[in-house]
């Protein structure tokens, strides 16, 4: 039986990634095959991602992440505490650069943003008609402060 690692490992990696990054690297948008117009936000600032994209993220999560993580780790009060002052861009950067632990950086930008969409949906964000772009500038505008308690 594979032992699941706690979300604390994920948080430690995020802190290490933030500490090691330069201001220029942190503000540089991620490469994306999608245009900025593909990401739409409602008037309330809620991000738009499609249900199909979140479903893809769930499938990628199951294939790439469950060796070390449970999906429930990303929708509990500890997740809200650790990520509530960060953005979806921070989460995307961590997933894109540091995950999966067995092969860091192996996920494509589209796979990483699909996982972010899945995590957003698990935390009460509403799906919309458009796919969320793998664009750090757009993702940084999505605050995780509105994560709802399960």
Topology:
Elements: H1 7-20, H2 23-27, H3 51-64, H4 77-83, H5 88-98, H6 109-122, H7 136-139
Task: Describe, in plain words, how this protein is organized in 3D.
The protein has a domain at about 45-145: Cytochrome Bc1 Complex, Chain D, domain 2. It has helices at about 5-20, 25, 50-65, 75-85, 90-100, 110-120, 135-140. Helix 1 (about 5-20) crosses helix 5, helix 3 (about 50-65) packs across helix 6 and helix 5 packs across helix 6 (about 110-120). The protein has about 150 residues and is mostly helical. It has 7 helices and no strands. The protein starts with 6 loop residues before the first helix and ends in an 11-residue tail after the last helix. The model is unreliable at about 1-40 (pLDDT under 50). About 45% of the residues lie in helices and about 0% in strands.
């Amino acid at each position: 039986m594979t032992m699941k690692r706690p979300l604390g490992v994920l948080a430690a990696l995020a802190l290490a990634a933030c500490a090691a990054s330069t201001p220029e690297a942190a503000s540089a948008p991620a490469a994306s095959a999608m245009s900025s117009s593909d990401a739409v936000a409602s008037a309330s600032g809620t991000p738009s991602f499609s249900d199909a994209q979140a479903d893809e993220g769930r499938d990628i999560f199951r294939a790439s992440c469950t060796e070390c993580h449970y999906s429930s780790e990303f929708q509990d009060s500890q997740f809200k505490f650790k990520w509530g002052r960060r953005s979806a861009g921070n989460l995307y950067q961590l997933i894109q650069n540091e995950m999966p632990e067995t092969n860091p950086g192996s996920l494509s930008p589209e796979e990483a943003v699909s996982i972010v969409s899945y995590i957003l949906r698990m935390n009460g964000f509403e799906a919309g008609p458009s796919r969320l772009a793998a664009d750090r500038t757009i993702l940084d505008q999505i605050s995780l402060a509105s994560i709802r308690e399960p």
